[in-house]
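Cont'd.
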Amino acid sequence: MRVGGTGSDRGGSAMVFVLAVPGSAGHSGAVSLTESPAALATALARAGYLADDGLTTAGFLARRLGRPLFLEGEAGVGKTSFASALAATDGVELIRLQCYEGLDVAQALYDWDFPRQILHLRTLEATGVTDAGVLEDGLYDRRFLLARPLLRALESAPCVLLIDEVDRADDEFEAYLLELLADWAVTIPEVGRVVARTPPTTVITSNRTREVHDALKRRCLYHWVDHPDLEREAAILRLRLPEATERLTAQVAAVAVRLREMDLVKPPGVAESIDWAQALHVLGADRLTPELAEVTLGAALKVREDLDRVSPRLPALVAEG
Amino acid sequence: MAGPATDAMPALLAFVARVRRAGVPASPDRVQACAAALDALGPAQLYWAGRLTLCGCADDVARYDEAYRAWSDGVAPRGPARPGGKPRRIAVPFGLDGEEGTADGDRTTPLAARASGQEMLRHRDLAELSTVERDEVRRLLALLRPAAPRRPARRYRAAPDGRVDPRGSLVALRRTMGEPVRLAYRRRRDRPRRLILLVDVSGSMAPYADALLRLGHAAVLTAPAAAEVFTFGTRLTRVTRALRHRDPDVALAAAGAVVPDWHGGTRLGTALGTFIRRYGHPGLARRAIVVVCSDGWERGDPAELAAAMARLRRLAHRVLWVTPHRDRPGFEPTAAGLAAVLPYLDALVAGHSLDALSELLREVGRNA
């Protein structure tokens, strides 16, 4: 539980990393795999994620400078999957904290396992232990501490910590994050201070439903993730669906790009175009036709107004694609 | 952290100065991060090193791009984007007594005049005020505390009149070494509903936009985490950040600097559509109280506006519309836009005078 004593419960993987990064304690993640943005791009592509220059550079700097990466962008542009791809390139664990309203320390950081503590007390009583000091010491043992994502990230670093949709959490929660992101340490009153051996690579995402406080953003690298261009989107589809025909993926990418230009309520993200191409592939299509597009459009567009607007224009869209 | 070679520093600072002039508020610690990023990436990557560290939101990125383009093209910097220094402030005598003539008359008259002056002012149309009256209205506006009603939240608080709290009871159990002495009770907390003000700043609303934005400023100060203010005319601008300053005049000046379309035309339907697409649908308008302040003069297609309002109605908790003309004699919602949105409103409120604005606040605060 104390500094450096984290290998025991997570066994092998932590050991491997201690060996892989000799003498780099205190220096923020100079993992050999990612010596330049280009090397990171290659590694990400191998993990199934095609990132553009901006995102690659952002990921590279996040590690090199030990700063959290704050990603904003429309839903479905691949903010969350970027974090899992980062974890995959290093072969480390991805620890995800999904934010929601009312999220508090007990769910994000740590909590005591009350039922087990009570059980422990009863057992001690039954065996005749009456010394208050012994009872109390036993009560706040590490095994009764439930590590929630943030504490887990501190203990098992190096890892990738994903704080997803931070705008959904209350603004009080940002204050906790500030403290954590500043020194990569938390203080648990009954136990003491827990410090990460090396800062976890941290990715924070936001959908902008609320302006996140500047104090938090200031500690981060900021990147706005755009929809990919036509070429990259086609490449992404090919990479994710190697079994689909190249013609189909190219057509789906082209139509998706056109749809995003149409000022829809919810333009399809990359996630949606992957879904759509997959749906078409499952139906046995080797190319996109207006009829097939019509019946599968629900994979790409999820708002009725959008469907009503796009349906009549589908033949033209498909023909252009 | 080792900085870049010392001779690169002046060039970087000059670049940062340019970026700041373009409107990106790059704080010193951001500049430090930029230097570190440049060091890690090499000087050829100035664009990304700067963009990732100096920018703080999507709007910053656009301004940064512009500054970078100008920098790399070697264009001489333009003058400052906004007038510097403190905004001009006019000293206003308290009440209307500055206007009420000499002090050598009957001692009771000025007081009575002041009270009735203020009373009259409450009902005066904001478009017909003199400068002194307007300043008085501004002072009164700054005293308003617009607050949305509260809604139940996810978290609980201890409450003796609530229901049994299993977790809390267990904690109490631990304190008494496992003896169930006391049960804990809990009840849901509540939080303010989000209040969203959409203020029309087009030409036809010019006399009222200032007062409405001041109302927005008061709302942002009252509930900083639960109020959002947007302006729209030909385009939509989020001004919440600009309105955060305590002083209403400074905040209004800051808002004025970021709004590009003062006193222009309106495209209501397009503006509301943009609001829904960029903010409302992704989550901002959900469970919120949305107040649209506009006279409803729509130059575009009323059908587009009606569709946008129908959508907003489904997203938001309540939708209120403020028009300065409601209490005018012979008012009918005939403006093409207003007629189209009427079926989707929870309330149509007047907004032409101080009194009408207080009425609006009562409507906003109503628990419905």
